Amino acid sequence: MYRDISVNLVDVSKKIGTRYLFTGINLVINAGQCLAITGPNGSGKSTLLKIIAGLNQPTTGAIQIISNNKQLDAEERRGSLGLISPEIILYADLTGYENILFFTRLCGIECNQQMIEEYCRRVGLANDKEQLVRTYSTGMRQRLKFALMLAIQPGLWLLDEPSSNLDADGKKLIAQMIGRGLEQNATIIIATNEPWEAEHADYKIELV
Ligand SMILES: Nc1ncnc2c1ncn2[C@@H]1O[C@H](COP(=O)(O)OP(=O)(O)OP(=O)(O)O)[C@@H](O)[C@H]1O
């Protein structure tokens, strides 16, 4: 697992059709720091996050992901990050517990029963972990994605609208998790419409 991640945005732009969503983004985010990408619907927040994840290509410029002074290649980049997004789908016919087991095994991460139970407890799903995900509400699915983030413990967290569908208690939980992640030296990038989520970020990119 890659730690102490720096994300270096070098003159990044993205054009879709005839419209530039953003141009000339230059920024370095170091381990333990948080970047908030804000802007109205359709301004390009998710697109920029996907470009950082390597799931989309910039029109110009480059993203460098650096861990311990080494620039990661595409495969290493995938191994360095965790992405929470509405586009990430959980397996509806597995339980919450089984989803964590499945995804952690896929990532080659050892996770025993006690650990999975603890991650479920921390996101408020202790009593629901044996239920099929198809019975979960959208807020419960979002909580399960955060349990997965706890299980995988990536160096780089990419969060697309992390508090969407969460109640007040869930939002507080996510804010605490982000704070703890930063204390543990994760690099965290949040795309959000929620001003409070951007409040404590070290850097902000405001798209229009
Ligand atoms: N693959 C694509 N093909 C065509 N247009 C796209 C594609 N991906 C994104 N877009 C367009 O790019 C713009 C930015 O989309 P994006 O999803 O990044 O915005 P956003 O700021 O995340 O919006 P929201 O707040 O609604 O989630 C939108 O106008 C969208 O229609």
UniProtKB/TrEMBL annotation:
Q: Which UniProt keywords apply?
A: ATP-binding, Cytochrome c-type biogenesis, Nucleotide-binding, Transport
Spell out the Pfam families in the cross-references: ABC_tran
GO molecular function terms noted in the UniProt entry? ATP binding; ATP hydrolysis activity; transmembrane transporter activity
Q: Which GO terms describe its biological process?
A: cytochrome complex assembly
Q: Which InterPro entries match?
A: AAA+_ATPase (IPR003593), ABC_transporter-like_ATP-bd (IPR003439), ABC_Transporter_VariousFunc (IPR051782), ABC_transptr_haem_export_CcmA (IPR005895), P-loop_NTPase (IPR027417)
Q: Which residues form the ABC transporter domain?
A: 7-208
Alphabetized SMART domains for the sequence: AAA
Q: What is this protein called?
A: Heme exporter protein A
Q: What is the species of this protein?
A: Pelosinus propionicus DSM 13327
